[in-house]
Amino acid sequence: MNTIPTEYRLEGDGTNIQDLPKISLHDHLDGGLRPQTLLELADELGLEVPASDAEGLETWFAEQSNSGSLVEYLKTFDLTTAVMQTRAGLTRVAREFVQDLAVDGVIYGEIRWAPEQHLARGLLLDEVVEAVQAGIEQGIDDARHQGRGIRAGQLVTAMRHNDRSLEIAELAVRHRDRGVVGFDIAGPEAGFLPSRHRTAFDFLAAQFVPVTVHAGEADGLDSIRSALFDGRALRLGHGVRIAEDLMIERQDDENTYVSLGPVAQWVRDREIALETSPSSNLQTGAIAAWGDELVDHPFDLLYQLGFRVTVNADNRLQSGTSLTRELALLSDAFGYDLEDFETFQLNAAAASFLPLDDREELVELIQDGFDRA
Question: Is pLDDT larger for residue 10 or for residue 86?
Answer without folding.
Answer: 86
